[in-house]
Write a structure and sequence with these properties.
The structure holds two protein chains of two kinds. By secondary structure, chain A is an all-alpha fold. Helix content of chain A is 72%, strand content 0%. Chain A has helices at 2-6, 14-39, 44-51, 57-83, 93-100. The model of chain A is unreliable at 1-6, 83-90 and 92-103 (pLDDT under 50). Chain B is mainly alpha-helical. Chain B contains ten helices and no strands. Chain B has helices at residues 2-26, 41-59, 66-80, 82-87, 89-93, 100-118, 129-135, 140-161, 167-172, 178-199. Chain B is globular and about 45 Å long. The model of chain B is unreliable at 17-34 (pLDDT under 50). The chains are: A mainly alpha, B mainly alpha. At the A-B interface, helix 2, helix 3, helix 4 and helix 5 of A face helix 1, helix 2, helix 6, helix 7 and helix 9 of B.
Amino acid sequence: MSQNEAAAPPQNEKAQTQTHQRLLGLLFGIAFGFLLQKGGVGQYEVLMGALLLRDITVFKIILSAILVGMVGVFVHVCLQRDCSLRSSRMRGHFHVVAKASPI
Amino acid sequence: MNLTRVQACSVAALTAVSFSTAASAIEPANIVHASEPAWSPYLVGGLIGLLSMATFYWSDKPIGVSTAYARIAGMLGKIVAPRYTLGLNYFKETQPVIEWEVMLLAGILIGSLLAAWSGDQLVSRWIPELWQTRFGEDSVIPRLVSAFVGGIAMAFGARLAGGCTSGHGISGALQLSIGSCIALLCFFLGGMAAAIPLFG
């Protein structure tokens, strides 16, 4: 899957890729907004509760998101190091991590 | 190109399945108070973590919205003063166009509307209950003014820091970026410093 994508996409498909990415962005946004509201962080009382140290819902959500998301990032970094999987698409965010954490 | 379409469909299917299973498994039978969260915060946080993996994998982007605000401001600037706006160095790098992140922002509004609507959390009022008990019923205008000014301060601060609560607090912190961890801590410290004298 990833190898097909990495094999030099033609120039005229660039605009189409952008449209697809916009659509993906919308889908990801819908999921994110849905989760935020279901988790209660769309509500004034819950957010203010965090700042007034009366309600730790916000901290529970942020910390468990960090905990789960971190696994993906570091699995990716390990894969990239061994077999340089998807290295052409994933510059930027991950390279910084890989350089900064010597094993 | 079929590949991207397949990926988009699989993301949609995956999220739909996870929502429905999660909703039936975790959602409490009776939500007494409107401000009680509908789903367990650990479940929501875990799913946001998975979502963050998905955005990195399929879009090579971290979840974050503050750049989208800058882009939208640039789009407005293009209407009012096109030459000046496009001459700014920031907008040469961060072009004021509708792209992934702006669509993410739009999606967040739609998604939260869907969640509130499906969970009977839609309320129609000008001021939140907490504000009303503190500042009284006829404090609509102070609330709107403070929300507007606060919004400006938040956008300014988020751009100054290079990220918002999602960009630094979730996407940055899960990469163990030291700057993001400091930013996350300071978001809450700053918020507490304002909230506790006002409401405490």
